[in-house]
Amino acid sequence: MPLPIDPSEKLKQIATGFALAEGPVYSRRGYLLFTDIRNQRIHKWENGQLSVFRENSNRANGLTFDHQGRLLTAEGGGRVTRTEKNGSLTVLAEAGLQGPNDIVYAIDGSIYFTDLPKGRVYQITRQGQVRVVAETAGPNGVALSPNQQHLYVADYKEGGVKIHAIDPDGALRPGKPFAPLTVDGLKTDETGNVWMASLDGIEVYTVNGEPLGKIPTPDRPTNCSFSGGVLYITTPQSVYQIQTKVFGTRTF
Question: What angle (nearest 5°) sits at the alpha carbon of residue 131, between those of residues 37 and 171?
Answer without folding.
Answer: 110
